[in-house]
Amino acid sequence: MGAFGNDGRERRWTGLDRLESRNRAPRSLLVALVLASVTVITLDVSGGGSSPVEPVRRAVGEAFGPAETAADAAVRPFTAVPQWFRSKGDLADQVRDLEASNAELRGKVELAGFDRNRLEQYDGLTTAAADLGSALVPARVVAVGSRQSQSFTVTIDAGSDAGVGPDMTVVNNDGLVGRVLRVTRSTATVLLIVDPDSTVGGRVGSSMKIGFVTGSGSLTSDASLDLRLVDDSSVPAHDDTVVTWGSSTGPYAPGVPIGTITEVYSSLREASQRAVVKPFVDFSALDLVGVMVPSGSQSDRAVIEADGSLR
């Protein structure tokens, strides 16, 4: 509180000045505290595990440790809330990643048999090319002829750009499939040997007798073919193998396996023999086939050469 003197100027109470000077810490005390702190730090560092302040530190820890633990336990639920939200989000991301990985692995397991079968078919075509001594253009069956057409045909994904042309022999890793009827640039229509209008020159392996193999008109796994030999007096043997006796210029190349003889019927009236042939090819499960082409043919895809190599 102030007052005015005779000269009109404000005067401060002299007692207030004394109070401020009394509350202000002496400089000597500050210097002493700084020196003491430096001394304690120096002793603590130089003493290491046997520091002279270690007992004091231990006593302070024992006194305030329980209080710090209690305080930490009290505030932990509140400080852990942000971390809980972060952890929950991370777990959700991990769950999504695991679900995606499981779906991928499940898909691979489900397709394992399919991929294995296709690999076996590729290996079979390589062996077939070497056995037949002919180059093969690999192709996949992409469509089956409609029942309304009354013909048993399939469409493959190889055409003139792949070197495929009409009247070429089509095989798979088991045996004879059929022959090419017509082609486009990217596809071809194949007449299957099970078609009733299909006739293939066949030869009985053990006797070398020749005849004609016709289709029975069925695509089931139990489909059969009929064989009639040119020599009516010749009786084919049961379980004998039938192969093609075609030519390199005809619609069927020679020496392609057709099937095995399962039954033989004799006709006394016609004095002829009819054999039932079980085809090697399962026409109900056609997938990968090979079209026999001249070696060195130009193609828009890899060609399996007669020695089994890819070109």
UniProtKB/TrEMBL annotation:
Key words, A-Z: Cell shape
A Pfam family recorded for this sequence: MreC
Domain Rod shape-determining protein MreC beta-barrel core: 148-292
Record InterPro entries: Cell/Rod_1, Cell/Rod_MreC_2, MreC, MreC_beta-barrel_core
Physiological role: Involved in formation and maintenance of cell shape.
Protein family: Belongs to the MreC family.
Stored PANTHER family: CELL SHAPE-DETERMINING PROTEIN MREC
Protein name (database record): Cell shape-determining protein MreC
Gene source species: Nocardioides hwasunensis
